[in-house]
Specification:
This protein is mainly alpha-helical. It is built from six helices and no strands. It comes from Sphingomonas taxi.
């Protein structure tokens, strides 16, 4: 037996086409697209908070030395950290900073959950589509019993459709869903570590800025370039 004997375009088309159609009918197309885009995160390294914590510590020292408005000139690639720093620069209360970070984290978790649920749905549907292919193959076989060659082709569809459905569910869709959920939980745990240091800056800088309005003045243009804090790639 060669690998070519395990390939049947008709059976594969029934399983893939049926699974895609069923997934599109039960899931909004926007969520399906998001589930496909989520595949990009699988080859990446797991999210780590350390590079961002180091950057937050540098931002903290910068704010203490030159005032909170110096943070406006910092290069921050992480969207959540950048949004929190913008709130701190604007003089937001610590509770507002904490709420913004928590909301961003929950929204990110929800996006990951939607993507994982979509792939779980694929894993649920694929075996059923395999059975549909099997039934189609059996029907084709019984309606052409007088043609031995046609019986073989129909039987191949019937058997391979079941195989394709099982492989798609257990070797593709379900592992992707599990990995997405694992990555989402790990990222949520790591991002929770960013909350404390950023809120601490907000607690210190909000009353300090009110007592000393001059601290809100921008950093002079001739200050050293160390104010541009670059985040280490995650």
């Amino acid at each position: 037996m060669t690998p070519a004997t395990l390939f049947d375009p008709a059976a594969l088309g029934i399983v893939l086409g049926g699974t895609l159609l069923a997934t599109a009918l039960r899931t909004p197309l926007r969520d399906v697209a998001h589930a496909l885009l989520a595949l990009r995160i699988l080859p990446r390294r797991r999210f780590r908070a350390e590079p961002r914590l180091e950057q937050i510590a540098m931002l903290d020292r910068l704010a203490q030395r030159h005032g909170v408005h110096a943070l406006d000139r910092s290069v921050i690639r992480d969207a959540d950290v950048a949004a929190a720093v913008a709130l701190i620069v604007d003089g937001a209360q610590p509770d507002a900073v904490a709420e913004a970070l928590d909301t961003a984290r929950r929204l990110r978790m929800e996006r990951h959950r939607i993507a994982a649920d979509c792939w779980t749905g694929v894993a649920e549907v694929a075996p059923a589509m395999g059975m549909v292919g099997t039934l189609i193959g059996l029907i084709a076989m019984f309606t052409r019993m007088s043609d031995p060659q046609a019986i073989g082709a129909a039987m191949a569809i019937a058997l391979l459709a079941t195989l394709y459905g099982a492989l798609l569910a257990n070797l593709v869709a379900m592992p992707i869903a599990v990995r997405l959920r694992t990555a989402a939980r790990a990222e949520a745990t790591e991002r929770a570590r960013l909350l404390g240091p950023l809120v601490a800056i907000a607690i210190r800088e909000a009353p300090r800025a009110r007592r000393h309005p001059r601290l809100l003045d921008p950093v002079p243009a001739d200050e050293p370039s160390e104010h541009l804090v670059h985040e280490e790639a995650a």
